[in-house]
């Protein structure tokens, strides 16, 4: 009898070993499910690593035991928590969840823009106080939105904001005109000179060395009085201390879905800051998102087993998929 064919091993890092991706059982691979404390054993001999716990930083700690890895898939758009020098310099391919979150995050941004224009925070406060107070609010028609980040999420956001009647510009590494989604793209190096144009500044860029701390006290001070910052990217792109000062004075408002520390500690001043909305890093998490993520990975596994090119390969040096200049 011929010897049985050895099936490739796929290690799956979950927040809890019992928190498993749906719909993967029919794939012709052997899965090793683990949480962070079991990752060292799970990666030994594994050719693929699925980061279902996509914010984990445990891979760096077990890298010496991961010599068989060929491919790591991250079930998130951002890969900043995964990348480290040894991985960047290796032959291991990194893929991400490109495309899964584009429309949901764009919808979140549109909702935040409308909520700001319609003064929803004040309405919620008045309802709790049982106070009937008639006010006039703004229209989003003709309002100006500056979208920082010209990748897939930024582009989906730009298209949806345009459809709602907003004027949109993008912010990328290189300025250019005649972009199909943004019209005009301005340079991120000149951000403080550009934000004064916008009623809404939307952060949708990956976290890299170039974007960390990009929105600092100077940029916040240059924003138009009464304008609105939306962060659906990563917390460290914004100087949170400077932002607290800016919203406390009432100069600007903000909607934040991401933070320097997550979960946001209960005693953090952002919870009670005026003119600020906090959500729990959920802008892309619509009902069924886990099924979509698992199906996307299963499709790539099938391609990998067939020797076909993988989808959504990340440029490890840049830290994102280079789909046009960002």
TrEMBL record:
Keyword Cell cycle listed = no
What domain of life is recorded for the organism?
Answer: Bacteria
Cited Gene3D superfamilies: NAD(P)-binding Rossmann-like Domain (3.40.50.720)
Q: Is Transmembrane a UniProt keyword of this protein? A: no
D-isomer specific 2-hydroxyacid dehydrogenase NAD-binding domain spans which residues?
Answer: 111-283
Every copy of the D-isomer specific 2-hydroxyacid dehydrogenase catalytic domain together lies at 42-314
Q: Which UniProt keywords apply?
A: NAD, Oxidoreductase
Which CDD domains does the UniProt record give?
2-Hacid_dh_1
Which Pfam families does the annotation name?
2-Hacid_dh, 2-Hacid_dh_C
| InterPro entries named in the record | D-isomer_2_OHA_DH_cat_dom, D-isomer_DH_NAD-bd, NAD(P)-bd_dom_sf
Task: Spell out the family assignment given in the record's similarity comment.
Answer: Belongs to the D-isomer specific 2-hydroxyacid dehydrogenase family.
**Name under which the protein is recorded:** Phosphoglycerate dehydrogenase-like enzyme
């Amino acid at each position: 009898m011929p010897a049985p064919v050895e099936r490739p091993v796929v290690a799956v890092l979950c927040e809890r070993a019992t928190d498993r991706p749906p719909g993967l059982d029919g794939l012709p691979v052997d899965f090793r499910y683990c949480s962070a404390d079991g990752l060292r054993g799970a990666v030994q001999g594994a050719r693929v690593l699925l980061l279902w716990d996509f914010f984990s930083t445990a891979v760096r700690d077990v890298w010496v035991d991961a010599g068989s890895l060929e491919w790591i898939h991250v079930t998130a758009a951002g890969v900043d928590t995964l990348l480290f020098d040894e991985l960047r310099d290796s032959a291991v391919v990194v893929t991400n969840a490109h495309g899964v979150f584009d429309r949901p995050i764009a919808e979140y941004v549109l909702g935040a823009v409308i909520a700001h224009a319609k003064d929803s925070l004040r309405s919620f406060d008045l309802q709790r106080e049982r106070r009937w107070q008639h006010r006039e609010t703004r229209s989003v028609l003709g309002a100006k939105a500056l979208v920082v980040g010209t990748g897939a999420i930024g582009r989906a956001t730009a298209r949806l904001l345009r459809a709602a009647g907003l004027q949109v510009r993008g912010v990328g590494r290189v300025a250019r005109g005649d972009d199909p989604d943004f019209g005009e793209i301005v340079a991120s190096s000149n951000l403080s000179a550009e934000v004064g144009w916008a009623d809404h500044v939307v952060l949708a860029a990956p976290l890299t060395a170039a974007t960390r701390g990009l929105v600092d006290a100077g940029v916040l001070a240059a924003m138009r009085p009464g304008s609105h910052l939306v962060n659906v990217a990563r917390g460290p792109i914004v100087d949170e201390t400077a932002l607290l000062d800016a919203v406390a004075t009432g100069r600007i408002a903000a909607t934040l879905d991401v933070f320097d520390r997550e979960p946001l500690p209960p005693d953090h001043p952002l919870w009670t800051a005026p003119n600020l909305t906090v959500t729990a890093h959920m802008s892309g998490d619509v009902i069924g998102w886990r099924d979509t993520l698992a199906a996307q990975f299963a499709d790539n596994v099938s391609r990998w087993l067939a020797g076909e090119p993988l989808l959504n390969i990340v440029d490890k040096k840049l830290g994102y998929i280079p789909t046009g200049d960002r």
